[in-house]
Write the structure tokens for this entry.
Amino acid sequence: MIPTPSQAAALLRAAPIPAALREIAQILHDAGHEAVLVGGAVRDVLLGRLHGDWDLASSATPEEVQTLFKKTIPTGVAHGTVTVVHGRGPNKVHAEVTTFRGEGRYEDGRRPAEVRFLRDLREDLARRDFTINAFAWNPIREIFTDCFDGLGDLGRGVIRAVGDPAQRFQEDGLRAMRAVRLCAVLEYRLDLDTAAAIGGALDVLDKVSRERVHVELFKLLAAARPILGLLPMAETGIWPRVLAPLEREEQLAAIEHIERLPRDPVIRLARLLWPLRADKAVIEKVIDNLRPSRDERARVLALTNPALGPLAHTHDPLQIRRILAKLGRKYAADAAALHAGEWAQAVTIEEAIRGAPLAIGELAIRGDDLVREGLATPGPQMGKTLADLLDWTLEDPRRNTRDRLLAHLRGAG
Ligand SMILES: Nc1ccn([C@@H]2O[C@H](COP(=O)(O)OP(=O)(O)OP(=O)(O)O)[C@@H](O)[C@H]2O)c(=O)n1
């Protein structure tokens, strides 16, 4: 259903806008400036979703904002952004106030302020990425602005670039990733012209900082319906730029099964890279390109280790334990989760490894115990003895007691 502007205004009037934020708008308003709430927060109020930060767009210049408020941070004065810190205790807010982005400020004293505000606001909104991100709400005058039929797109569930899509994606390559991420998170589809323009802007996407691409990709993968972002990633050509080229069938299989996996972006990313497991260098290139944390990198590499391959087919607890002992306990739960959705091995895997040692360090006995008992001497042979003990214990995890391990070494177990 497409909300009307007055329904949108009613929702925004009732929105839990923090008191300190409203005060910021009031102070700007009282000083003769226009101040409106913009961006994802307005969109999310209309969708009944929670949103963290509120952004303000204003006719005030950064210098004017800095004079009006006691505490400000020059976040990006060159781009017109000042962070205002306002309110006390739990009511304190950090609000980003950005001067209307337009062709430049008009010194047009003849026209009434109202007309100038509307023109400058429209220009600001015209530079935003998508119609559903180009709403403005003036909380003081209670005016809702939607110049690009964002409400229509909200009702239809469409991500559509504002104005000329090619221009929007040329301005900022990250918008291509934002488009597919929003499709996944909001469960929307891409407008056709917008999708076509992404295909023409992939070189601009290549220039975007990898950290920002990482953030968008992980938000997409953690969504309830990542399919709705992955399909347009494939169709627009983003996929091979951010991930790695895949055979169509493998790509479709990965997309098809991904929603059965936990909403953990690392496990889901590993699934997308799984068909490439034979080529570790390719997987490393993709993951390193995303500037992962050390932990994310290690988990993706463990989960795409080709040694895990047979997990997809086996029900043999010993084989499962042997495979996972190669990876170590740290990744066993991840591996069980990765194989759960698609290959339905989760229960088997969990049962197979319950109580089982998956590393020498998890044996009920240590090297120095063996020395004390006169069963081994320090040196390379010791490692082999412990590895053999682990292997013997993997056959039956109940063997992992000190007495049974010692008895086995003495030839009695
Ligand atoms: N590449 C970008 C990033 C942001 N914006 C505009 O700036 C607003 C605020 O951006 P940001 O806080 O990054 O995102 P939100 O859309 O507010 O929310 P989120 O990304 O969390 O969904 C967006 O709504 C959009 O109007 C844009 O036009 N182009």
